[in-house]
Amino acid sequence: MYMWLSSIRLGFPRKCIHPTQNNHNRLIFAHGGSGGGSFKWASSQAALALWNSSSSHSDESSDDNSVTVCTTNVATNGANRTHCFSELDTSGVVSKLNCLRNEPNLAISFFHRVKGDGFRHNVYTYSALIRILCCWGLDRKLDSLFVNLINCCEDLEFEISDLMEAIEEGIEVSPSMIRAYDALLKSFVSLNMFDEAIDVLFQTKRRGFVPHIFTSNFLMNRLVEHSKVDMAVAIYKQLKRIGMNPNDYTYAIVIKGLCKKGSLEEAVEVFQEMQEAGVTPSAFAYTAYIEGLCTNHRPDLGYQVLQACHGENVLIDVYAYNAVIRGFCNEMKFDEAESILLDMEKRGLVPDSYTYSVMICGYCKSSKLLKALALHNDMESKGIKTNCVIVSLILQCMCNMGMPSEAVDQFREYKSLGIYLDEVSYNIAVDAFCKLGKMEQALELLEEMKCKHMVLDIMHYTTLIKGYFLQGHVVEAASFLKEMKEKGLKPDITTYNVLDLLDYMGAHGFKPDSVTHNMIIENLCVGGKVKEAEAFLYSLEYKNADTYSAMVNGYCEANHTKEAYELLIRLAKQGTLVKQGLALKYSVNFV
């Protein structure tokens, strides 16, 4: 398999990744903190002394943070045991937590109970609880605790780095310590705080251990998902240098990342690294590589890898086939896509709705409506349920091919069959009704959407406004433009393609009024077409105060305060007064 993979290198430019390729990678070799937020690695000089002094109960209060607490425990014989602590201080809380170290749930309850009674936990009480959670392997509770600490770090009287040093003071590296660092690292990753997570990762090395491989994988995978591939690869290389042994999933993550950025040659090299390390590639690794080939316009090579996997008895699932089928459909090679679908079924793999939707999408984009309908019928005959995405593809294809009447009929049929139709499906049907000039039916569909608690957005208003303009109903179109703005929906240039509409109106003898002119000016500005709005304004034979007011308002909406000011001054010199309040709006925008 490795020799075969190496043979597909032809045609790919080589791309090298260096640890210093971007400014993110400096974190990997840094010896300090990330420099961001309040998280930093600061020494806590008193940690060991106070930790040792708190290992047994003290009758003397060592700080002002004290409360009176009573706790009730249930003994094994069912009798209740009540413990009352008067004026608990830090050492008292730590002592009580240590006494409950063999009963973690009671320790957690006690921790939250004293907090609810007004005790302010600090680095020593937190470290006592964390040690208990680590000892008992309560990873979920540990993760939750660290996430809460990170989210509330601004309200803490200590740094998280102080807490970690307090946990490890006076003891050798232990599974509990490693578990604590793993939990902290995972918590930063889950909050997408990658710089802080990387700091934790390499602080562990300076403390003589590396995090669990699963934790490192979690970090690298999330980096890849957030398109930080260079960081993930640099971490992978550095972890190997400090003694981490990657597993099959580690290699697969790196392969996925390299394929995502188009570095297919380097992905092949990772396969070779796996071979040298004696690690057998998983189906996930091959699937990631297959998808990478298809995404980079080489579905033919992707299919070859897929076939090679079968020859090596690698269990490739439907996802890999879907990637190849999608790749061929994107290349408009439908015969190849169909042959792969047949091959897939011969091997006992059952296509899913995504498999069919990919092919139907390709056929619809190529206006091969009959092929799309036949494939849709084949899908349903095999008991695979259709969905609103597939239905919308077919309906849109009909509209694009000048078949609005057929689109309406098909929409009604799908609805009668009980198929869920979403906002996109309804919008296509509304557009079909508009093209047929059946505006009342279009409005009925929108009302039906409201009854189903669907939200009308700019897409639906755009479709309706265009429909009214195409039918010459300028007043109604302007009315819906106004309604749309009142609902806080800002029209874009797609909503109001003024040049096309005006050409259409002029060709059909429709004369827009001043209200329409004002809306055109304002909406062009909102859509970022300030120059077009200016050209339209000065092309008008008759301009009044309202028209100029619309232009001033448009300037303000587009943050063109200088132009708004100049127009206001020019109008004032001419004796033209704009609407009351626009001068104030300009001054607010200018400030």
TrEMBL record:
One Gene Ontology molecular-function label: mRNA binding
Keyword Repeat listed? The answer is yes
Q: Per UniProt, which keywords does this protein have?
A: Repeat
Q: Which PROSITE patterns match?
A: PPR
Transmembrane as a keyword of this entry, yes or no, is: no
Mapped PPR repeat ranges: 177-211, 212-246, 247-281, 317-351, 352-386, 422-456, 457-491, 544-578
Point out the coiled-coil segments of this chain: none
Quote the InterPro entries the UniProt record gives: Mito_RNA-Proc/Resp (IPR051240), PPR_rpt (IPR002885), TPR-like_helical_dom_sf (IPR011990)
Q: Which PANTHER family match?
A: PENTATRICOPEPTIDE REPEAT-CONTAINING PROTEIN 1, MITOCHONDRIAL, PENTATRICOPEPTIDE REPEAT-CONTAINING PROTEIN 2
Member of which family? Belongs to the PPR family. P subfamily.
Name of the protein in question = Pentacotripeptide-repeat region of PRORP domain-containing protein
